[in-house]
Specification:
Helix content is 39%, strand content 13%. The termini are close together.
Amino acid sequence: MSYTSKLPPSWNDRPPPRQVEIDLSSPGLAVFELERLLYTGKAIVSHADEVWPKLYIGDQSSADNRSELTLHRITHVLNAAHSRLRGGAETYQGMNITYQGIEGRDCCDYDMSANFQTSADFIYRALSGGGTVLVHCAVGVSRSATLVLAYLMLKQHLTLVEAICAVKDNRGVIPNRGFLRQLIKLNAKIHGNHRQS
């Protein structure tokens, strides 16, 4: 199944991705193959990129730039690198932005999967209500990308490979290996443990 079939009409005009087949039944090999696929993604040239209609992945700078948030009509911010030392919801005071923070660490042993469902629900509610969402972390390539990939799998019913193809063509991302293993487990739970293209 091609990811383009699940996108709104305006995004369906984009050329389909090349077919990629990856065996996800062996997590060690799958991580290597997924990393190879991710490295074929778009280079990062901006602080935030729209990777799905009205869904952006960005870095901390994009989350702090009030004029860019207004320009992109961001209504919801999901911070995958929330810290009590940096501003949270108060950063967006007076902007009518709904904020959710996750104190995620970008290390292989951090259990980001504990946040998959709540983050997917947050993004889904925002987009279903006509909002525009920025999911960010420090650099905008690992923690935030992992949460967006989980959203695409849980709410848009994409396989992990389809989700990666949808995102990487719009922003270069590379979740750490621990996060990739967690996404592989999520994929197996949703779609079974088999070869996917």
